[in-house]
Write a structure and sequence with these properties.
- By secondary structure, the chain is of the alpha/beta class.
- It has one domain: SGNH hydrolase (Rossmann fold, 3-Layer(aba) Sandwich).
- The strands form three sheets. It has a seven-stranded mixed beta sheet with strand order 4-1-5-6-7-10-11, with helices on both faces. A two-stranded antiparallel sheet has the order 2-3.
- The N and C termini lie far apart (95 Å).
- One of its GO terms (molecular function) is hydrolase activity, acting on ester bonds.
- This is SGNH hydrolase-type esterase domain-containing protein.
- InterPro entries: SEST-like, SGNH_hydro_sf.
- It comes from Nocardioides cavernae.
């Protein structure tokens, strides 16, 4: 009896063990739950030509304390992060980028190489935003960074785009509105505040060879820091970095109607009518400044190309593309054809009469003292004029097509050219 009970108890116990094992087996074999993959992300970094300066539809920007800053008013300090002018129309936002799900604009108008690894506010005339590589780290927490569009080099410790643009425009306006004998009125550079002479800008006024060389070294070091952080934070380690250069907003030669006015050219003293005409068209600069301006643009192209070549050689396994956009606006620059600025891909140079929010579109009713007042507004409230001579929304559509070509290919160098018919060729 006891034997039969023992055998029955043993059988029951065995059955229970088998049943328990059978129930437990599926649980043991089930794979662990997988986290949702991070969305493929494109990031814009660098300065105004990347942020979308001039393209409008600017978005709020987070400051160093983590607070979103919207438009603070025209009389606000220019250090406000909003004046990074990150546009919803910027090329990073409008480009066709197959596979990209999320797009983030970290670029800031006026950014310098130092701003990649340091807060912009750490230098004079900087803005209260965190270092761009620190912002990049934040993006990497919610996105798999597959593309970085980076534009850097036109602003640095040697020269700034805004400074040289204001110098050449200011000289032209001052020369046209005052005679050599009118020594009681002094025009100043609208950005730097330095007193202007009245000669057309030459090559050295834009940047000397030594300055360009120093700027290239600064830019190379800064891009190297970006690449180091990318290697550290990118989820899968697979990304392409596109280094874009710059396109000149002014043509190599003005259309005939912008060369003289009332029989006066910009080679004589006092040519007020010509200043009024070119300002209205968006291109207040001497004819003799155009060739040096284009040589300056070419120097910036060589600077960015040199940065790309150096880093491609250092990191042969990295996906680094140099995007040459110097001819992307061919035939559609300011004053290149009649009808400017309406048919141009760049914003006209514009100032305000005080921080009013209303741009002066004609100097016609103004005398020399009025001109000094409105140009001084640019110096006092730089945001009133900082959109000048940048790609507009239509220009960023073109730059977006250039970026799309760089993204879809795997070339180390991509050139983007606008044809006379208005087509955009990416090679």
């Amino acid at each position: 009896m006891l034997g039969r009970l023992a055998r029955a108890s043993s059988a029951l116990a065995g059955a229970l063990l088998l049943t328990t094992a059978a129930l437990a087996a599926p649980l043991a074999l089930a794979p662990p739950a997988q986290a949702d993959p991070l969305p493929p992300t494109a990031v814009a970094m660098g300065d105004s030509f990347i942020s979308g300066e001039g393209a409008g539809a600017y978005t709020a920007v987070t400051d160093q304390s983590g607070v979103q800053q919207g438009f603070p008013g025209w009389a606000a300090d220019n250090s406000n992060p909003y004046f990074c002018h990150r546009s919803a129309n910027a090329s990073i936002q409008v480009a066709s980028l197959p596979g990209i799900v999320q797009r983030v604009n970290l670029a800031c108008s006026g950014a310098q190489p130092a701003d990649m690894a340091n807060a912009s506010s750490a230098r004079p005339a900087g803005r209260t935003v965190a270092a761009q590589v620190e912002q990049l780290r934040q993006v990497a927490q919610t996105g798999d960074i597959d593309l970085v569009l980076l534009g850097l080099g036109s602003n640095n410790s040697q020269f700034t785009f805004g400074g040289v643009a204001a110098e050449c425009a200011g000289r032209f306006v001052a020369d046209g509105y005052t005679g050599w004998w009118e020594v009681w009125i002094h025009f100043a550079n609208w950005v730097t505040g330095a007193e202007l002479n009245e000669r057309a800008c030459n090559d050295a006024d834009f940047a000397t060879a030594a300055q360009v060389s120093a700027a290239q070294a600064e830019t190379t070091a800064a891009v190297r820091q970006v690449l180091d952080v990318l290697d550290e934070v990118d989820a899968d380690g697979d990304h392409r970095v596109v280094l874009q250069d710059y396109t000149n907003p002014l043509p190599q030669a003005y259309a005939e109607q912008y060369r003289t006015e009332d029989g006066r050219s910009d080679t004589r003293d006092k040519y007020r009518g010509l200043v009024d005409e070119r300002y209205a068209a968006g291109c207040p600069a001497d004819i003799d400044s155009l060739a040096p301006a284009h040589r300056f643009s070419q120097n910036l192209g060589r600077l960015v190309s040199g940065v790309a070549s150096t880093l491609q050689a250092e990191r042969p396994g990295a996906k680094i593309t140099y995007l040459d956009v110097q001819r992307a606006f061919d035939g559609a620059r300011l004053c290149e054809s009649p009808g400017s600025p309406g048919n141009a891909l760049a914003t006209p140079l514009r100032v305000m009469d005080g921080p009013s929010g209303v741009h002066v579109t004609s100097f016609g009713p103004y005398d020399k003292f009025d001109i000094k007042r409105v140009t001084d507004t640019c110096s006092d409230y730089y945001q009133t004029c900082q959109e000048s001579w940048h790609p507009n929304a239509a220009g960023h559509q073109v730059l977006g097509r250039c970026l799309a070509g760089a993204w879809s290919g795997a070339a180390a160098r991509v050139t983007c050219v606008r044809t006379p018919a208005g087509d955009v060729l990416v090679q």
